[in-house]
């Protein structure tokens, strides 16, 4: 009986997992095959699509731009959010409730709607923002905010902030020193986890990038979109490369959050 | 002039007064305890002394200097918290060295001091451990070492034993006392546990609702409670109405009188009692609790319910519920108390 139950549970889990894996696996095989047309099995395997992709300067540029935008927005987010959460938790703990509502706002409005809103807002501005990476960095900051805030706030509640700062004060440390030497090292885990999570999310962002900037600053997703007319093998290789990169990030994130070395 | 002088110190949070016009003095090397029920303002008073909370009014003088508005970093006051407040990202050694590091003394230079301090709290060999790898008692000893290494002028202990289990609490209590005597450290201890306060203190300040109700040596506070609150808080005093006291003991009481459970005797046949142990009364056993070495009886005498403690010499002496016995009172220990 017990064994039967086990078997049932296992078969459900494996069944769903393999179902979910099929498209990825198919894309992977497709990206590796030299051509795969009217036959059941591909004609032959080759790495030429990957070769083509990785030597395409446009791809390398787009990848670089995407990395730049993601890293810049996350750096901005870290710089602003960390001190902000510290101030909220140490001086105004009641504001945490307000923040929890505020950070949901980027999710409450669909990207298409908010990007049109942003276009209208900044279209007439004397300062050219639309079509530059800067507007994307600003927008991505708001998308990353909820992930960052929740994860870091959780780290804050896990430590005894007030007593730790008090103890540091009595031992002669200023508030900023206490924050740098004691609080920050204890937030490392939450911060890294949220950074990786936001990073992989932002790297795959398409709607904002397409509407606000488009081809004027070709990011990875825009590049993928523009390449849709070329060979399917080529775009498959592109998707697989992207997927492998995200997989690496996720794996790193889970490794870092699992470690108990604080 | 005393080493520490508190002058008309008051603290409010918004409209709520935490304590008002607190005044006391402490001599160098003295161990005093702020004792009181939770919410009486004792912890806030301690935090105000440390500079972690600001006083609304009043002055704090230490060693002839007014430190009321000094930043906590410059007060040279050490503190141990109930929650330990150890820095979780640092080893034992780094935790202890933190205060010195803030003074610009490197861990290398301070190696001797750190070792001495860890010896003092019996934690040598644990230098490289992280706080989460230590037991509660060990953590609190790290916190103690961390506070002591910077040679504070006053040591504040905010319920440092409350989170520990009974046996470790007993050991650490003694250890704190030994260190305090060895370093001749002026110490202020906060607790809600009257037994702990009695055992450790040179003097006790008993607080209630933001006021110091009574201060003095432990034995004085225990045997001469000034009012009902003190009598209720210290031990399990019986409070007897003035009218009843007049009838029973023929004393001119204007307020309630207090008598401790161990000052009432259950009369044994054939035993001689001193003259001041008299006024026999008949009582009915309502309940009894076995506390270990003591049996605590709850007895009905006329309209009064009295608590009487008896040494648990042999199990045959356990009086069953409902049985009638004769009580004697130690008249010297009857204490009139104010309201």
CATH architecture of chain A: Orthogonal Bundle
The CATH homologous superfamily of chain A is named MetI-like
Task: Characterize the main sheet of chain A.
Answer: 2 strands, antiparallel
Order of helices and strands of chain B: EEEHEEEHHHEHEHEEHHEHEEEEEEE
How far from one another are the termini of chain B? Answer: 34 Å
Name the strands of the widest sheet of chain A in spatial order: 1-2
Radius of gyration of chain B: 24 Å
- Average pLDDT level of chain B: 91
The strand count of chain A comes to 2
Q: What is the CATH third-level topology name of chain A?
A: MetI-like fold
Structure description:
The complex is a heterodimer of chains A (262) and B (339). Chain A has 262 residues and is an all-alpha fold. Chain A is built from 12 helices and 2 strands, in the order H-E-E-H-H-H-H-H-H-H-H-H-H-H. Chain A has helices at residues 2-32, 48-55, 57-90, 95-102, 105-108, 111-123, 133-158, 161-170, 175-203, 207-213, 220-226, 232-258; strands at residues 33-35, 44-45. In chain A, strand 1 and strand 2 form a beta hairpin. Chain B has a 6-stranded mixed sheet with strand order 6-7-8-3-9-10, sandwiched between helices. Chain B has 9 helices and 18 strands. In chain B, 26% of the residues lie in helices and 32% in strands. Chain B has helices at residues 42-50, 92-102, 111-120, 136-148, 166-183, 194-200, 218-223, 228-233, 242-249, and strands at residues 4-13, 16-26, 31-35, 57-62, 65-66, 77-80, 154-158, 186-191, 203-208, 211-216, 238-240, 257-259, 264-266, 277-290, 294-301, 304-311, 324-330, 335-336. The interface between A and B is medium-sized, with 19 and 29 residues.
Notable characteristics:
heterodimer; A: 262 residues; mainly alpha; MetI-like fold; 12 helices; 78% helix; globular; B: 339 residues; alpha+beta; Rossmann fold; OB fold (Dihydrolipoamide Acetyltransferase, E2P); 2 domains; six-stranded mixed sheet; five-stranded antiparallel sheet; 9 helices; 18 strands; 26% helix; 32% strand; elongated
């Amino acid at each position: 009986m017990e064994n039967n139950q086990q078997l049932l549970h296992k078969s459900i889990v494996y069944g769903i997992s393999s179902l979910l894996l099929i498209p990825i696996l198919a894309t992977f095989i497709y990206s590796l095959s030299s051509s795969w047309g009217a036959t059941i099995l591909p004609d032959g395997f080759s790495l030429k699509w990957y070769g083509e992709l990785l030597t395409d300067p446009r791809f390398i540029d787009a990848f670089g731009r995407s990395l730049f935008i993601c890293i810049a927005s996350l750096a901005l987010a870290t710089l602003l959010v960390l001190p902000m959460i510290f101030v909220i938790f140490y001086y105004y703990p009641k504001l945490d409730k307000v923040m929890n509502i505020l950070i949901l706002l980027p999710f409450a409005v669909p990207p298409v709607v908010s990007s049109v809103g942003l276009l209208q807002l900044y279209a007439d501005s004397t300062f050219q923002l639309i079509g530059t990476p800067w507007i994307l960095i600003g927008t991505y900051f708001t998308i990353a905010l909820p992930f960052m805030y929740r994860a870091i706030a959780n780290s804050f509640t896990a430590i005894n902030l007030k007593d730790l700062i008090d103890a540091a004060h009595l031992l002669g440390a200023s508030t900023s020193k206490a924050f740098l030497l004691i609080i920050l090292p204890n937030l490392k885990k939450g911060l890294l986890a949220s950074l990786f999570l936001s990073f992989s999310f932002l790297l795959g962002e398409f709607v904002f990038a397409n509407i606000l900037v488009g081809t004027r600053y070709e990011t990875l997703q825009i590049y993928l979109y523009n390449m849709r007319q070329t060979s399917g093998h080529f775009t498959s290789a592109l998707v697989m490369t992207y997927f492998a990169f995200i997989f690496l990030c996720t794996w790193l994130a889970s490794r870092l959050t699992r470690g108990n070395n604080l | 002039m005393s080493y520490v002088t508190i002058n008309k110190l008051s603290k409010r949070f918004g409209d709520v007064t935490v304590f008002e016009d607190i005044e006391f003095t402490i001599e160098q090397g003295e161990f005093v305890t702020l004792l009181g029920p939770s919410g009486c303002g004792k912890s806030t008073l301690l935090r105000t002394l440390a500079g972690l909370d600001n006083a609304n009014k009043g002055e704090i003088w230490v060693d002839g200097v007014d430190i009321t508005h000094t930043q906590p970093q410059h007060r040279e006051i050490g503190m141990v918290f109930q929650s330990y407040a150890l820095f979780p990202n640092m080893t034992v050694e780094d935790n202890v060295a933190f205060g010195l590091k803030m003074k610009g003394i490197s861990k290398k230079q301070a190696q001797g001091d750190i070792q001495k301090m860890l010896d003092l709290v019996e934690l040598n060999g644990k230098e490289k451990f992280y706080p989460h790898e230590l037991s509660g008692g060990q953590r609190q000893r790290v916190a103690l070492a961390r506070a002591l290494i910077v040679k504070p002028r006053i040591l504040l202990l905010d319920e440092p034993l409350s989170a520990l289990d009974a046996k470790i609490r007993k050991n650490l209590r003694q250890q704190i006392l030994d260190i305090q005597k060895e370093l001749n450290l002026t110490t202020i201890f906060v607790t809600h546990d009257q037994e702990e306060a009695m055992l450790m203190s040179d003097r006790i300040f008993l607080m209630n609702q933001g006021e110091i109700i009574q201060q003095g040596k432990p034995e004085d506070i225990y045997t001469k409670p000034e009012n009902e609150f003190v009598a209720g808080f210290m031990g399990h005093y019986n409070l007897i109405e003035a009218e009843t006291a007049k009838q029973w003991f023929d004393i001119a009481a204007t307020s309630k009188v207090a008598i401790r459970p161990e000052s009432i005797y259950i009369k044994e046949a054939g035993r001689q009692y001193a003259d001041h142990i008299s006024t026999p009364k008949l009582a009915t056993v309502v309940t009894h609790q076995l506390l270990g070495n003591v049996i605590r009886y709850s007895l009905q005498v006329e309209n009064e319910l009295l608590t009487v403690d008896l040494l648990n010499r042999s199990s045959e002496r356990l009086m069953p519920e409902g049985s009638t016995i004769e009580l004697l009172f130690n008249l010297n220990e009857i204490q009139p108390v104010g309201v």
